[in-house]
UniProtKB/TrEMBL annotation:
The lineage of its organism: Bacteria, Bacillati, Bacillota, Clostridia, Lachnospirales. SUPFAM superfamilies: 5' to 3' exonuclease, C-terminal subdomain (SSF47807), PIN domain-like (SSF88723). Residues 2-318 form the 5'-3' exonuclease domain. It comes from Candidatus Weimeria bifida. SMART domains: 53EXOc, HhH2. GO terms for biological process: DNA replication, Okazaki fragment processing. This is 5'-3' exonuclease. CDD domains: H3TH_53EXO (cd09898), PIN_53EXO (cd09859).
Length: 337
């Protein structure tokens, strides 16, 4: 049976980099002092390779254990995508990518392409938009899985697309998987990649309080500090109850707009408190930050109509060149692979 894997390559390479970083760098807070230990990072012929090596091992293990037949690996090309044009503050708080990691992005993409993997990147869109577009095109044709640590991808989950959401350690992943094992057909658990929690629509609702398609609405209210998406200040605790009642951000504002005067607004706030359990009325904040809410929802929405460079046949792992693989592993000193 065919099985399609969509990889958030940027997320995996970053995680791989920090997972194989010397402790002198990992625990040093001063950026300039970190540079003194760059020579301790895994290298071969003057090229940094720690992130590449760890990611390559991870991909090989997943391919084999999960019996993957088709794969696409999506990378971010730039932070200056259409979202930055919409909102200048988008991801503005993030520090610059360390040089040893920056060079490995180029090397990793080149190595994967040489071997024959389908590698997607685009100047105007992020990796999650490319992943969303791949899922939209092919998830109905075969069981589809996405692996990432980014919670934005939750919105892509549906009956034909499962998310393997990477956790910080195996214990956390096991806890999530065990907590929701009864939601799966056999009720006995399942094989998932290391450190990954398997997220289906039912698990998403149980774990995060909303359905996958409501994730952008949720982030429209609560924001996202990792991406510097503002949301609505002071309304986080009310977001899930409101979305359970109204389903969408637009419908919440429709309810607010249906109040012609202060008396009806107080009545709405009382309904939220008594029926939804919202202790502190978010009405004032929602009205004040309406523009930010809808902007945040849009920023958090993964695009699913980006034109990809590869078709499904080009994503087949049967196209991989074992000779090229050996050559690339030798080039970067991956003898154990």
């Amino acid at each position: 049976m065919n099985r399609f894997l969509i990889v958030d390559g940027s997320s995996m390479l970053v995680t791989s980099y920090y997972g194989l970083l010397p402790k002198q760098i990992l625990f040093e807070k001063d950026e300039e002092k970190k540079k003194k230990y760059y020579d301790k990072i895994m290298q071969y012929n003057g090229l940094y390779t720690n992130a590449m090596y760890a990611m390559t091992k991870t991909l090989k293990k997943i391919e084999k254990e999960q019996q993957i037949t088709h794969m696409v690996i999506c990378f971010d090309m730039s932070r200056d995508t259409f979202r930055r044009k919409q909102y200048e503050g988008y991801k503005a708080q993030r520090s610059a990518t360390p040089e040893p990691l920056k060079s490995q992005f180029v090397q990793m993409e080149d190595m994967l392409k040489e071997i024959g993997y389908a590698v997607e990147f685009c100047e105007d869109y992020e990796a999650d938009d490319l992943a969303g577009s791949a899922a939209a095109l092919y998830s109905k044709e075969m069981p589809t899985y996405i692996i990432t640590k980014d919670h934005d991808y939750l919105q892509l989950v549906d009956k034909s697309c499962t998310l393997w959401l990477l956790q910080t350690n195996q214990d956390k992943a096991d806890a999530v998987n065990n907590r929701y094992s009864a939601l799966f057909s056999d009720g006995k658990g399942f094989l998932v990649p290391d450190k990954a929690a398997q997220i289906t629509p039912a698990v998403c609702r149980a774990e995060f309080g909303v359905a996958p398609e409501q994730i952008p609405d949720l982030k429209g209210i609560v924001g996202d500090t990792s991406d510097n998406i503002p949301g609505v200040k002071g309304v986080s605790s009310a977001a899930v109850p409101l979305l359970r009642e109204y389903s969408t951000l637009s419908a919440i504002y429709d309810a607010i707009d249906s109040c012609p005067d202060e008396k009806s607004e107080k009545k709405l706030s009382a309904f939220w408190k008594e029926k939804l359990g919202v202790k502190r009325s978010p009405l004032k904040a929602l009205k004040q930050y309406r523009e930010e809410a809808f902007m945040s929802e849009d920023l958090a929405t993964i695009r699913r109509d980006v034109k990809l460079r590869h078709d499904l046949d080009q994503m087949s792992l049967e196209r991989l060149d074992d000779k090229k693989r050996r050559e690339q592993y030798q080039k970067y000193g991956f003898r154990s692979l």
